[in-house]
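Note to self: the last two entries modelled the partners one at a time, which told us nothing about the interface. This time every component goes in together.
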Amino acid sequence: MTVLLDAWQDWECPRCHFTERTRPQPAASSRMHPCPALHGLTAPLVPAGTDCTLVAHVREDYLQGDEQRHGDDGRPYMSVETVHADGHTDLAVYAAVATARLGEQ
Amino acid sequence: MAGWTDSSPTSRIFTQALINPILGRVWSTAAPTSFVNLSSDTVNAALFNNSVSPDASAAVASTGFNTGTWTTTNEVTDVTNWTSGGRALGSKTFSALTAGSQTTASSVAFAAANTSGGGSVTISGALGCMVYDATISAGTVAKQGLCFNYFGGSQSVTGGTFTIVWDASGVFKVTN
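The predicted structure of the combined assembly is written out below.
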């Protein structure tokens, strides 16, 4: 007789406590969600039970015409950092969209 | 002077990439060698430090990976999981982002799934990335750059994951 094991992975957000259950994901894969506790930014989920917090970082430079991701507080953000209890960090970086314009806007 | 803020905007599509291959179908110019399309080609994102001086109007010979300002000496890598040449983009799409109207602008976007390293990485001083077609081997320039995207500041991580979250508008977009 073959026993079929049903595996899953639980995820959570340490800031807004959103939870999600998925099939096991590849190593270093990331799950994202729009986080109401981080100004609506797209923020990573962490495996349930992980001792960490999320920190959003405001863009350091002028926008200079870039279309950068903004939070619901109207500020441009460049990254969300996951700070783990053991000191190591994960980083989700918001790349501005590259643009070209045809005609006058 | 060098640095990402040499360019304004700081995230732009290369003009030479617009000429060929992005808008290349409108003219008799041959497509770059080995180029098929952005769907089937391998499109990579490579990380760079602040020693680059991005120029969307650069000559085509200076818009390839490891040419012009985009040399590997300015590249930011991890020993194992974000090596030289960068990471390939997955789940690519090319579609109308906003339909527009007779009086409002429309836009077309090239997008991709968020790009992560293959495991824990140690990255220091990455300020942006160059997105290039790694399948192009010659004709225009090998590994021709499509665009460059600024991160808004210096990004570093030690022994953790590093993920580029592409804008809701995509990797690049053309507005009309």
